[in-house]
Amino acid sequence: MKQMINIALPKGRLGEKAYGILEAAGFECPSIKEESRKLIFENEEKGVRYFWVKPSDVVIYVERGAADIGIAGKDIILEYSPNIYELADLGIGKCRMAVAAKKDFYDRRDRTLRVATKFPNIARDFYNKQSREIDIIKLNGSIELAPILGLSDVIVDIVETGKTLYENNLEPKQDIVQISARLVANKASYKFKNKEIKEICEKVQNIIG
Q1: What's the CA gap between 202 and 188, in Å, rounded?
Q2: Do residues 77 and 67 make contact, with C-beta atoms less than 8 angstroms apart?
Q3: Is it the case that residue 178 has pLDDT exceeding 80?
Q4: Amino acid 209: pLDDT
Q5: How far apart are CA 208 and CA 88, in angstroms?
Q6: Cβ atoms of 50 and 41 closer than 8 Å
Q7: 66: DSSP letter
Q8: Beta bridge partners of 101
Q9: CB neighbours of 10 closer than 8 A, spacing ≥ 6?
Q10: How far apart are CA 204 and CA 209, in angstroms?
């Protein structure tokens, strides 16, 4: 009997795409597609047990060993710096972390820059490297409102197409880092369930090419 591998999937489109890759790699679990309120789905024959979690929680489940492996955005990995292994770039959920502001914004370096973001650690690290004095304003939603209402000078946020920014008279000013979904592993699990995790990783790599 195979050791069961617990896999944390992020809820939403990204998780569904990630499951599609795992399914194509031979680790399907038909019950995950059924309409139900179940939280855990397993296929004993394939040795996998899946569960859906909030995207930002995936790295916590993996780091603390509740999940052996998981799918997490590079943005979450950079923001939380969890003590985990990053095994593969899945090449899905591609976007970028960027600084955005009003189209006519000019950065006056003689004063503190007010930065609104859901990602304070990424923002802080970015501006620290520039020796730029900043005031971080942590927000949880509708980041674009902050510069429009004068709460902040700039925002640091994920940009996919930039459509929302342009529709609100904002624009990307500077890219910080490219983002995509990564396959991550708990360090102890990688040691004690190495054969099973490596098998999943190799078969996933064959699918994504």
Answers
A1: 19
A2: no
A3: yes
A4: 83
A5: 10
A6: yes
A7: S
A8: 154, 171
A9: 18, 52, 53, 54, 55, 58, 70, 71, 72, 73
A10: 8
With a cut of 70, say whether residue 60 has pLDDT above it.
Answer: yes
177: how many CB neighbours lie within 10 A of its CB? 13
Q: Nearest 5°: CA angle at 140, between 137 and 145?
A: 70
Show the tokens assigned to 143.
């980041």
Alpha carbon of residue 203 to chain centroid: 22
Mean pLDDT of all residues in 112-135: 97
Asked if pLDDT for residue 139 goes beyond 90, the answer is: yes
Rounded Cα–Cα distance for residues 53 and 125 (Å): 27
DSSP structure class, residue 123: H
Give buried/exposed letters for 64-86 (b at 16+ CB in 10 A, else e).
eeebbbbbbbbbbbbbbebebbe
